[in-house]
Amino acid sequence: MKKIILMAVTVAAASATMNVQAAAVAVCAGAGTAVAQVSAVSSFIKTPFTPKCSNNVHLQVDDQTTFYRVGAASVKGKNGFGGSTAGGAVSVNAACAATGCTATDASAAATSASSV
Questions:
Q1: pLDDT tens sequence across 93-103
Q2: 75-100 in b/e burial notation, b at 16+ Cβ within 10 A?
């Protein structure tokens, strides 16, 4: 019985640490150049790269050990888009404010994309 309880506690603790919600990191800030390189330090990405950014596009990423989420929004657009490698196809996350999308909209799309 002790082994079963110990195993249940271990599994619960492991699953809790795997689903930790990290903040999305800005990769593109709307200026057409990458503000961060996507690295490969104990994460889902295994080979570092620098993304090619378009003007007026905010791109946020959330790199975890078991999945990778992205969120994007255009300064001239009306919706934020998000998706993940955990079975989350790219889709509309939410409508942006009437004045256009911001980095906050891209971050919200990245953190709301599927992680399971």
A1: 899 987 889 99
A2: bebebbbbbbbeebeeeebeebeeee
